[in-house]
Amino acid sequence: MTIFQKIIDREIPADIVFEDDRVLAFRDIEPQAPVHVLVIPKKPLASVASASAEDRDLLGHLLLVAQHVATREGVADGGFRIVTNIGQDGGQAVEHLHLHVLGGRAMSWPPG
Ligand code: AMP
């Protein structure tokens, strides 16, 4: 079981900023920007690479929740970044699909 499943199950605490029946959003424990929120599906998908056509609506919903979180956190107007890391080379540490919503500072490109 991943640490994010434990957060969904309320076995460990998190600073939750949004929740509905399909999605949970909470603050990253090691924030990389003034706003750093993780948006995760309650369905235990390992990453975007594990998603299928039946997850189409859920994936769209995750993006809209990320947009909603950015607006509520006050970073939508200035610009923000949505990142999802996939697998070893993608830098994924937790094998439960998550969108990083980062904002509140200027971002550089390309990523390291
Ligand atoms: P990734 O490398 O894309 O898998 O990102 C995993 C993220 O989860 C990292 O940014 C961690 O700081 C974050 N993280 C790990 N454990 C927790 C936790 N208990 N609560 C909140 N964020 C966490």
In brief, what are we looking at here?
With 112 residues, this protein is α+β, with helices and mostly antiparallel strands. It has one domain: HIT-like (HIT family, subunit A). It has helices at 3-8, 56-72, 87-90, and strands spanning 16-19, 23-27, 35-41, 80-83, 99-103.
Q: From the structure provided, what is the oligomeric state, counting identical versus distinct chains?
A: single chain
List the secondary-structure elements in sequence, H or E. HEEEHEHE
Strand order across the biggest sheet?
1-2-3-5-4
Structural class: alpha+beta
How many domains comprise the coordinates? 1
Task: Give the low-pLDDT segments.
Answer: none
Estimate the global geometry from the Cα principal axes. globular
* CATH homologous superfamily designation: HIT-like
Number of helices: 3
Instruction: Give every kind of bound small molecule, once each.
Output: adenosine monophosphate
How much strand? 15-25%
Give the N-to-C terminal Cα separation.
Answer: 29 Å
Describe this structure in words.
It is a single chain. With 112 residues, this protein is α+β, with helices and mostly antiparallel strands. It has a single domain, classed as HIT-like (HIT family, subunit A). Helix content is 24%, strand content 22%. It contains 3 helices and 5 strands; from the N terminus they run H-E-E-E-H-E-H-E. The protein has helices spanning 3-8, 56-72, 87-90; strands at residues 16-19, 23-27, 35-41, 80-83, 99-103. The chain has a 5-stranded antiparallel beta sheet, with helices on one face. A hairpin with a 7-residue loop joins strand 2 and strand 3. The protein is globular, with a radius of gyration of 13 Å. Adenosine monophosphate binds at residues 3, 14, 28-30, 38, 85, 91-94.
